[in-house]
């Protein structure tokens, strides 16, 4: 056998590369690190909230005429009477053990308040996001196909203009308009509460319409771009029917970018529940946090800010993982 | 500058937004002056009244006119929104330019903080700051301003980073100007425009957010009132008097939209205008008004032996260019027989790829295809697409494209992309199709095909992807493989592998091949027959064996001469064909090559030669066709100015 110029390769089984070399492992580690840092910032911010309030928050909450011993008692109840580091560690310990403090207004454990209110908000946000996706993807795909390669200029203009305007309208104003039309003028749907299934319709749509408009716009732009790609020509060369090309080959590639924005939208949607819950008297976290801010019930406010923040972080994480699964290159691209 | 601003106003949306912004600002200035006393007037006769002639939107619980209050509230609403915007822009641009001023190490911490903050929605940040700064107008201004800061910081950071990379900043740094000075004198002026535009959009967002906070009861407190506060009061009595909620809602919406859309329009108007480019113009059969005017002489017209796989007559492709229709393929006729390998060569822009896409009906939206005949295995490809034809083509016509890096769908596994052909066209089950895909990958010499089939395209090398692409074509039983520059994007060392593979498949299954290339050597090596294209025409159709010795068109001969061989003197510059290829939008009346041809005479300039069997061609090659008035004339010796550059197409 003639001598060949091969460099001896390291003794690594090609089927099982080292763990750290796997893109998915690197991706997971990196993503976990970012999550932990964000979580730490969030927890610290929610702890710091009370301390950032100018002046004396306890005195501010109780008013200038409150007796000194009440102020001291309240300060103790809030855990504001030790050195700041001790307070911080105490706060962290409470979080780990699930102790979020006691509501000043109701004297109930804050964890109970949150547990009682969280499901309504979760359901509202989840349904709204689903609705937005279900509305946006077909709309974006169809307009994308109709406006590909500079076709349908009028359709494109009408669609873009409408979606910009709709996306700009804040959810609570959409809520007010929907209440006026469907609850007051037509009397089809109830205006408040979550007692019946029909009561879900207006709040869910108030939250979903704006994100749906943005998402549809992004899906359209992505579709138009993807339809120009070489692999679409390959799919056409395979003589697949149009639907298989649009849905099977173009959509997964268009949805990746839409998901990135969709994640931001879902985060905003979580926060948007605050306003919409107040329009519809929805018994969730949003109506609770507003009441607690006004009554200066700080432990409840801190806890709910934390819950919203964690919700946003989870959403971002889920979106990143979903993108990584849908578009295998993204794991590497970030490197 | 003026022209750019005019562009903003010219779109209907931009004009509407501009008018609205002016109206809203005028209202904010004049509203309290005109109606201030009226809005405060208490009408005890009409408390919580419904709309009437006296009170168009009804009255509130003190009998004050709601419409007047909405008009007057414009000043406070807009003022607070602008204040919040200023805070957001100032805080944001300070944070955003901090990495530039503070240097890389400290800057990294700032931008990491900004990145974390940006991940949280604005409303959540606003609520956080509302707690810190307390309930009320001041707290809300600070809250909305600071909540908007991270987004502006991110924007500033991006803009600064863009400018910081430019030469004049580097030059300023090189002469020792301080970072802060550079920021003020060189960077900020260059990013001011996008910042201002985004601040305008931000003002609209701030207005809407402020309304949100006031609506929650966290913003403006009684007795002051802004739109959000009026909405807060109005929503409670929406059943009694809907306009009490609708009027302030409409006002805030209109104003918010005005600022937002104005900003968006300005952004669009000041940006780069969207160009026209080539647009598809549908598809039509030849014989219509725009049918081919004059075309090649077909070979052996009438004789359509069953051996013909692909039959193309008078093919034309029309695309719409910036100044009217352009015809990159101007009447091309040829046929491909079973097992035959045809090479199409020519410079870029000669129409060879267009021809390939047109005959395989893959041009779709890119242009219109006309022909008097276009048949594949006896099927009329000009007829409308049907499921049956898709099935036939899907299993008998294979394509290999130039760039294997982009030709596979990045989101699907290689095996699945191959298997799709079998499940779709051959009614196989997923499992059978997958087994077939693995088998085909093995057939195109991909090692460990079982594992490879489960990988994504980005895990394949370029050469392997191109082989997988060929394997995809072999999922059915192809009668023809059309390979459009299949080796151009590949490393030289793997080019030969791909060509060998194509040749082997051809031999084994008697598959016809159309190989498109700018490389005469490659084509001459693989193919039986060569079509030389120039300016959307076939100028010569000759057996590959005759390429080096019996080429008759001066262009073909120039192409062959331009290829360096072992006898080429390395000290001499490489040969070129002088002049530039013809612009397809401006084809001369005579022979398109006349301008560059050393043999051209008056007839060449005036009359376009037809592609016809060359009477002077050797008797043993009856299929040799050439389109030239001077075919076979000896070329004058021109040893000067030659290089191969003009022949080489950029991939």
Walk me through this protein's architecture:
The complex is a heterodimer of chains A (335) and B (651). With 335 residues, chain A is mainly alpha-helical. Chain A has 2 domains: 24-97, no CATH class; 119-334, MetI-like (MetI-like fold). Chain A is built from 13 helices and no strands. In chain A, helix 11 runs antiparallel to helix 12 (298-326). Chain A is globular. Chain B has 651 residues and is an alpha/beta fold. Chain B has a domain at 2-30 and 75-270: MetI-like (MetI-like fold), CATH 1.10.3720.10. Chain B is built from 22 helices and 13 strands. Chain B has helices at 2-10, 12-40, 66-102, 104-118, 122-133, 137-164, 167-174, 179-215, 227-236, 243-270, 352-359, 387-396, 404-407, 414-425, 430-443, 449-452, 462-473, 492-509, 520-526, 547-550, 554-562, 602-606; strands at 308-321, 324-337, 341-345, 368-370, 373-376, 379-380, 397-400, 480-484, 512-517, 529-534, 537-543, 612-613, 625-626. In chain B, the strands form 2 sheets. Chain B has an 8-stranded mixed β-sheet, with helices on both faces. In chain B, strands 1, 2, 4, 5 and 6 form a 5-stranded antiparallel β-sheet that branches. Residues 272-295, 298-303 and 639-651 of chain B have low confidence and may be disordered.
